[in-house]
């Protein structure tokens, strides 16, 4: 069969001339595969709607058959199809024009079919080539016919495979949707945490800025005071030395008072001994109250009795301090005197309420001995001193 075809091909007269064939010049058996392969279905619909008289209910097969019938002779439909194909496959036509004989054209066609790309352009360029004879046309159309069968079978396989892929795609889509929901929830949670962290960072930053501002203001104020008082360190040192000197003076004053009381007692005893007869035994008074090395604070009392209070306290060997309870002395002076005192005698009938509560609160907080006297007399004061000495003993 192959030898017969080759012999028939050898018997055909050679094709001469350089004019390419038109669509209507092809054999009637070529119009169907050319239009079916080379013209897309969308373009078929456009050309049929533009050039044919339609009823409106034609399907794609009817439109295809109408164009195939119209392409058998030269008319407006055939010329429109010719122009569309020439423009669509201009590159393939220029490539096929390099073939100068039927054998080279057949080789070019086979290469294009083997590559599997641009078969529509290769079909149009081969069938309309000046060197395409009837034998080559039949071979090309036969291959196209078989390719269409193979495409149909492959299409059925592709449909089955497509269904499988569609089912798999749906399953993957569901899984992806679940994963996307989890990722979205996680992202929202992270965003909320990030927002909370950002708010906390802003609060911490605001607090830090406020502290830095306060520190800067304090440093600026310190520099201002240091510039205004350049002798401030020396004054602090002098204040400390002054406090030490005051404490030392108080200790020395207590020692002087103690020694003075001893001298007074000795002098009185000698005078009494000299006044009595030699054989008489003196009627000695009871031993005096002794509060050596103590600081006695008297709060309140009459102004005229203060020297008597002082004499009574110093007679006991103690140091005397006095505050009038707010009559003339400032209440602020009471606190340092309370801190320096060892024993407090409060004349409750001659002080203000504020001084009374200050004395009571201070003695309670510092566990300091405090004797309250109702009557502002010397005898009552001396009894309070005796009570304080007894408690001290």
UniProtKB/TrEMBL annotation:
Record key words, sorted: Coiled coil
Family annotation (Pfam families): DUF2325
Keyword Coiled coil: yes
Ranges in coiled-coil conformation: 162-262
Top-rank taxon: Bacteria
Family statement: Belongs to the UPF0751 family.
Protein name (Swiss-Prot/TrEMBL): DUF2325 domain-containing protein
UniProt source species: Pelomonas nitida
């Amino acid at each position: 069969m192959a030898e017969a075809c080759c012999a028939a091909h050898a018997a055909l007269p050679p094709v001469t001339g350089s004019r390419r064939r038109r669509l209507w010049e092809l054999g009637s058996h070529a119009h169907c595969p050319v239009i079916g392969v080379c013209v897309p279905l969308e373009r078929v619909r456009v050309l049929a709607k533009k050039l044919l008289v339609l009823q409106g209910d034609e399907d794609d097969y009817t439109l295809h058959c109408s164009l195939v019938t119209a392409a058998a002779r030269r008319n407006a439909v055939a010329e429109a199809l010719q122009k569309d194909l020439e423009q669509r496959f201009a590159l393939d036509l220029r490539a096929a024009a390099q073939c100068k004989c039927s054998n080279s054209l057949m080789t070019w066609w086979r290469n294009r079919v083997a590559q599997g790309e641009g078969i529509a352009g290769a079909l149009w360029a081969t069938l309309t080539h000046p060197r395409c004879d009837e034998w080559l046309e039949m071979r090309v159309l036969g291959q196209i016919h078989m390719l269409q069968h193979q495409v149909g079978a492959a299409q059925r396989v592709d449909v089955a495979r497509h269904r499988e892929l569609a089912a798999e795609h749906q399953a993957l889509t569901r899984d992806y949707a679940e994963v996307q929901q989890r990722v979205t929830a996680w992202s929202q949670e992270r965003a909320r945490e990030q927002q909370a962290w950002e708010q906390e960072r802003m609060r911490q930053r605001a607090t830090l800025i406020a502290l830095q501002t306060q520190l800067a203001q304090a440093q600026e104020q310190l520099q201002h005071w240091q510039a205004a008082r350049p002798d401030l360190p020396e004054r602090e040192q002098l204040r400390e030395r002054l406090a030490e000197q005051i404490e030392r003076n108080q200790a020395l004053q207590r020692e002087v008072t103690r020694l003075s009381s001893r001298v007074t007692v000795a002098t009185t005893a000698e005078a009494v001994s000299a006044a009595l007869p030699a054989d008489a035994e003196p009627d000695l008074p009871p031993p005096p109250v002794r509060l050596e090395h103590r600081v006695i604070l008297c709060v309140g009392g009459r102004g005229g009795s203060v020297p008597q209070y002082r004499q009574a306290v110093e007679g006991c060997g103690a140091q005397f301090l006095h505050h009038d309870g707010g009559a003339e002395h400032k209440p602020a002076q009471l606190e340092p005197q309370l801190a320096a005192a060892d024993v407090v005698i409060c004349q409750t009938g001659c002080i203000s309420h504020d001084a009374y509560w200050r004395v009571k609160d201070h003695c309670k907080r510092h566990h300091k001995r405090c004797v309250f006297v109702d009557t502002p007399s010397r005898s009552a004061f001396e009894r309070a001193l005796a009570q304080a000495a007894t408690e001290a003993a």
